[in-house]
Amino acid sequence: MDGALVVAIGTPHDGGMDVWGIAAWIVSLVSAAVGGPPCTELVALDLERTRALVSTDPAALTRVYADPRAAAADLTLLEQYRDRGWLLRGSSMALLGCVVLTSDDTSARLDVVDRLGPTRVRGDDGTAVRLPRDLPSRRTIDLEQVDGRWRIAGVA
C-alpha cells in the first residue's frame, strides 16, 4: 500500500467552488492510483457519505449503505453532533492504501488503511471547532451492488 489519496470535503459553498463537482472529477482520475475500480467506488462512497454528513441528511447517509443497519454508526455520529449543537463544516479523509481482496460483479472485499484528517464543526453559537485528527486505521470494507449501485455492506 504505497501512495495516498487525500479526499478533502468542505461545505458545498466554500469559496464559491462546486466542491462536489470537483470531487467527482477527482474520483474519476484515481482508479489506478488507489487499487482499481472497487477502491474507486469506495472513494466515491466516502464523498457521498461526507456530503450527507455535511448537509445533515440522514436519508442520504443511509443510501451509502447496502442495509440501513450498516449506517447505524454514522447515524449515531450525526445525532451526537446535532445533540451538541454542531454542524459538520468540513472534513478530510486520507486513503493511505486500498487492496482488493476479493471482487466479482456484485461484491468486493477491500483491505483499507485510511486516516481522518482535519475536521471542522460549527456550534449553534457560530463558534468554529477543529476536532482532533485521527491516527491511521486499517479496516476490511465489504461493498455490494444494490439496484445497480455500489454500497457499503460492512466495515470491520
Question: Could you explain how this protein is built, in words?
Answer:
This is SnoaL-like domain-containing protein. The protein has helices spanning 19-29, 31-34, 37-54, 58-62, 72-83, and strands at residues 5-10, 86-103, 107-116, 119-123, 128-131, 137-146, 149-155. Strands 1, 2, 3, 4, 5, 6 and 7 form a seven-stranded antiparallel β-sheet that branches. Helix content is 32%, strand content 38%. The longest helix has 18 residues, at 37-54. With 156 residues, it is α+β, with helices and mostly antiparallel strands. It has one domain (5-155): Nuclear Transport Factor 2, Chain: A (Roll), CATH 3.10.450. The protein is globular. The chain has five helices and seven strands, in the order E-H-H-H-H-H-E-E-E-E-E-E. Helix 1 packs antiparallel against helix 3 (37-54).
